[in-house]
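Consortium newsletter contribution from the modelling node. Members have asked for a concrete example of what our holo predictions look like. Here is one, prepared for the S-adenosylmethionine complex that several groups have been discussing at recent meetings.
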Amino acid sequence: MGDRNPMGRMSAWLRDAWRAGGTGGLNWHLHAATSQQRWRGTQEAIDRALARVQPTQRQLLLIGGSAGWMMSTAWLSCFERVDVIDIDPLAPWLFGRRHGPALKRAGVQWQFHRQDGIAGLPGLLREFPQAFVWFDNVLGQLRYRLDDEAALERQLGQLQHWLLGRAWGSVHDLLSGPIAHDLPAAVMPLCQSAERAESPPEGGVHYRVNRRLTSLDALGQQLLQGVDAEGIWQDHCTGVVFPNGTAVQFIPWCFKPRYCHWLELGWIRS
Ligand SMILES: C[S@@+](CC[C@H](N)C(=O)[O-])C[C@H]1O[C@@H](n2cnc3c(N)ncnc32)[C@H](O)[C@@H]1O
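And here is the predicted structure:
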């Protein structure tokens, strides 16, 4: 990545191997490896949602793929080629251990690219013009790097314009915070469907839930009640990611004991 000075490159490598922008690296892998049982229900809900994403593209550009701790091997196996983009230098080894054997059996070629998949997205879209693009739990993480909410929403809202005409999708954090009790093992009954709707004249992100126009604030309150939220929750500002008309699913994720994330998952055919 960018730095020509060997010491600078080494320190960037170590920083990314340890925390990768605060959301990956060894920290993430240790947490993910020890949380698999608690995450199982959420992984199943993601697997089911991905099974309905049947792109015609044979190539997948997986941004923020890491080791694919929450990714469905069956879905990856639908492609002929998978290109994983992540800043974490530990990701390729762990991705290979987790998904490599099954991908090899299915005849899927995969390759890792250590680079910034958000800032570098326009270049990646040119480099992989035929690929289906999947943001794998990475867009909600920008919240940890950028405090300025308006700037963050501008950056996240820009992505759909870069992706115009492309088939793409994302699963990302929408809201996160403490909960009174851990979630049940099966989270499917808690999941909710909606459609991203046009904003009314007064503005603000809106969804259509059972045909009723609902603001993200009101919907967020319902989601929080659904998981017995308590204390202060964080808005990841990702309500602006999907274009109007996108069907989305909200999936709860007990990220750590008594701490939950609401994920938003959706995709656009092209
Ligand atoms: C919450 S983890 C999710 C990882 C992966 N989807 C999984 O299920 O294991 C977020 C990942 O995004 C990566 N990441 C963060 N910012 C990135 C960027 N700008 N470009 C590429 N990867 C990034 C981190 O290194 C980390 O691996």
